[in-house]
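Q: Study each token:
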Amino acid sequence: MSTLTTTHHQAIFHVLHYLKGSPGSGLFFAAHGTPQLHAFSDSDWARCRDTRRSITGFSVYFGSSLISWPSKKQSTISRSSSEAEYWALASTTCELQWLTFLLQDFRVSFIQPATLYCDNQSTIQIASNPVFHERTKHIEIDCHIVRHKVNAGLIKLLPISSSMRLDKKIKN
């Protein structure tokens, strides 16, 4: 704030101009429903043909409203689909933690823990198993993050059921 530049001023005016011109825009939350964070995490293993890096994607909902939805190429090359899924799960866990703290700071009451859905059974097993095996040593840091948040009651990991996949295909 003490060293604002012309670029900063232009950005501020751009945001203010947008806000003034779109007073009806914004996120709308249903008056009825369950005020709970839930997320869906996924990874597309070795999707990039050039680098063989995986793509991480997740969507986070508050009740029935979508509030966060990134898609990004992973920074490392995963040796298995489980590893790629676990990196995606760790990213989603961090996002859920941040949103939980944000809602608490705003004094918004909501049901905890947040529910995190993952479509890879081996990834859920890695998160649930307190014993690290030599095959998972390279993802140990993220294992600790996800496992710690599960044990602390911040998130609840669940598999994506067949009916959820069917509902997703029908909506698309």
Remarks:
- The mean pLDDT is 79.
- The chain is about 40% helix and 20% strand.
